[in-house]
From TrEMBL:
<dbReference type="InterPro" id="IPR036271">
    <property type="entry name" value="Tet_transcr_reg_TetR-rel_C_sf"/>
</dbReference>
<dbReference type="Pfam" id="PF00440">
    <property type="entry name" value="TetR_N"/>
</dbReference>
<dbReference type="InterPro" id="IPR001647">
    <property type="entry name" value="HTH_TetR"/>
</dbReference>
<keyword id="KW-0238">DNA-binding</keyword>
<feature type="domain" description="HTH tetR-type">
    <location>
        <begin position="9"/>
        <end position="69"/>
    </location>
</feature>
<dbReference type="InterPro" id="IPR023772">
    <property type="entry name" value="DNA-bd_HTH_TetR-type_CS"/>
</dbReference>
<dbReference type="InterPro" id="IPR050624">
    <property type="entry name" value="HTH-type_Tx_Regulator"/>
</dbReference>
<dbReference type="InterPro" id="IPR009057">
    <property type="entry name" value="Homeodomain-like_sf"/>
</dbReference>
<feature type="DNA-binding region" description="H-T-H motif">
    <location>
        <begin position="32"/>
        <end position="51"/>
    </location>
</feature>
<protein>
    <submittedName>
        <fullName>TetR family transcriptional regulator</fullName>
    </submittedName>
</protein>
């Protein structure tokens, strides 16, 4: 990575870090882009070059924490475990990442749902890459005859990702932890019973 690229990445990380501090202390709605620029010690123009709005800063935050663990989750999900175990592990992993701040996660998920069709998450280089982990799990399951192969793997992966979004949205509203375990198992069973041989 060149010096210029490192500087850009440092600026991006500083903006995300300062914005998160403001979101948590003041609230997301109450924080302005001007305050984020001031706290980050960058001009408003520079801030808008990196992030067009507050929601995109949240996206950057969740992408960075997911990408940071991307290789770990890939390693954990390769091996001889069955498909159900891998899907369970994937949902647990994502819940762990997103569960640290329920309010910000809710804003992030709402924004992601509004922009869901702006690009294909499986080919978008600005995504965290977790979608491609799901795609690889699905492809492996088809090769191992755990899932039917007459449905394209990308369609099955998108279907599972939509079920996962349902799980995370429900997670925000859950009153008891056992409710979420039950829901997670039901969603995985729904996916597998509709897709397996």
């Amino acid at each position: 990575m060149s010096r210029r690229e490192r500087k850009k990445e440092e600026t991006r990380s500083t903006i995300i870090g300062c914005a998160l501090e403001l979101f948590k202390s003041k609230g997301f709605q109450e924080t302005s882009m001007e305050e984020i620029a001031e706290q980050s010690d960058v001009s408003k123009g520079t801030l808008y070059n990196y992030f067009p709005d507050k929601e995109s800063i949240l996206v950057g935050y969740f992408q960075s924490i997911t990408a940071g663990y991307g290789e770990d989750i890939k390693k954990a999900l390769t091996g001889n475990q069955d498909l159900k175990f891998k899907l369970n592990s994937l949902l647990d992993f994502k819940k762990g990442l997103m569960g640290s701040d329920v309010k910000l996660t809710a804003i992030y998920l709402r924004y992601r749902m509004q922009t869901l069709f702006n690009s294909d998450p499986f080919s978008n280089p600005n995504r965290s890459g977790l979608e491609n982990v799901v795609l690889e799990i699905i492809k492996d399951a088809q090769v191992n005859n755990e899932l039917r192969s007459d449905i394209p793997s990308i369609i099955l992966a998108r279907t599972f990702m939509l079920l996962a979004v349902n799980y995370f949205i429900s997670n925000i509203e859950a009153k008891e932890p056992f409710e979420m375990d039950t829901l997670k198992n039901q969603l995985i069973e729904l996916f597998l019973d509709g897709a397996k041989l």
